[in-house]
Amino acid sequence: MVVLAESSPILPSELALRAYELSTDAVVKETCYGLIVTGSEQAVNETIEELRKLDPSGIFVKDRGFPPGDSRRCRAVRGGGPRPGFHQLEKESAILPSISYGLETIEDPLDVKHQKKRDKLKIDRFIEIIEEQSKEDVNG
Fold first, then answer.
1. Segment (H or E) for 36
2. Can you give the residue ranges of every domain in the chain?
C-alpha cells in the first residue's frame, strides 16, 4: 500500500498516472489514501522506488496483510462495512504530516558522524524532575 501524507502536494490520481506510465508488471489500484500496488516483488519495488521520487518525505509504504479478494478480509463475504484495518490506517495517516515534517527538516538522519552527543542526565536533576512531576500530579 502506498499512502500519501495529507501534507503531500501529490494527489492519488497523479500517483496512479505516474505508476501507469512506468509500465512495470505491477497492478495498480487508486484508493482514497494513495495506491495499492500488487505483483511480483521486483515489479512492486521498482514501481514504489520511482513513485517515492515524486515526494520522498510524503509518500509512505506499508505491506498489505492480505491480497485483494482474500475471503478472510473481503467485505462482500463479511456483508459490507469498512475494510478490516481501515481504522488503523486512518489513525496512522493522521501522524504522517508530522513524520513528513521531521523528514524534511532533518538534514541526513543516517549521518551518525555529525549528530550531537547529548550530556547524560545527572541523577540529582532526574530526581528533581520526578519530584516536580509528582507535585503537579497531586495538585492537579
1. strand 34-38
2. 2-111
